[in-house]
Amino acid sequence: MQGFDSPLRLQNSKLLYNSQMDSHLFINSTDKILIVFPHPDDETFGAGCLIQKALKIGASVKVLILTKGEASTLKNGVNDPAQLPVIREIEFKNVMSLLGVKDYSIENFPDKGLRETADEVINYLAHELRTYTPDVVVTYEPSGIYGHPDHIALTKMVEDLHKEFDFKLVYSTVEPGYMPSEHLLKMAEHPEEIKPLFPSNFINLSLRELLNKIKCFNLYKSQFGGKTISIGMKIKFAFMFRKEYFYIEKTL
């Protein structure tokens, strides 16, 4: 598939990438950190550990989710599809409680429609930036990890607002060599263009942070099966999520 290195190149790059990334925590206790993603569960995937570490050191954290994820094809345990956004909102609030986040909001912009409602979304984000005045803003990297149009649209809006507002822009990205599943690629408009940013930084999850992250996914029952995650899946998650990866612009 276009957009990814060959297996041999990926194998060789993995021997080098740890030496090319900074493992120091790139936030401090005086920071105000705005975590902004399109869908409930994006914040857990992209920054579940960062949120925990930020709160632990006393930083201020606010989480914004722009849609209620009503367009998801995953509806595990949902008898009435019309109830999916209600259920996903409840799941998100339960995750915020587990992580200890007090300042959060889940909005009602259309899932798979952020690009079409860009003016309204930008106005909303500009208001949040003016009122919260974050030092750091975290969102997905520009190709949206696996090409989801909402991921890409939101990142473009944040980048445009970055020209007006003063904050450190931190992109949530993935381990070098990551390849999206066929299910995820079905959501991409241009899968051949997907190439997530090579991380400049990573943070290691402690055992407690990893377990909390797995618990968060377990709370998203509509998206992750509705049953307690199996031991095999926990082992898979432990491998996948032992680190979180980020890219910080060198000029910032």
The residue fraction in helices comes out at 40-55%
Task: Label the structural class.
Answer: alpha/beta
Shape descriptor reads globular
Number of helices: 10
Fourth-level CATH superfamily: LmbE-like
Order of helices and strands: HHEHEHEHEHHEHEHHE
- What is the strand arrangement across the widest sheet? 3-2-1-4-5-7-6
Largest sheet: 7 strands, mixed
CATH topology name: Rossmann fold
Q: Count up the domains.
A: 1
Low-confidence region ranges: 1-16
Q: Distance between termini? A: 33 Å
Residue fraction in strands: 15-25%
Number of strands: 7
CATH class: Alpha Beta
Radius of gyration: 17 Å
Tell me, rounded to a whole number, the average pLDDT. Answer: 88
Question: Which architecture name does CATH use?
Answer: 3-Layer(aba) Sandwich
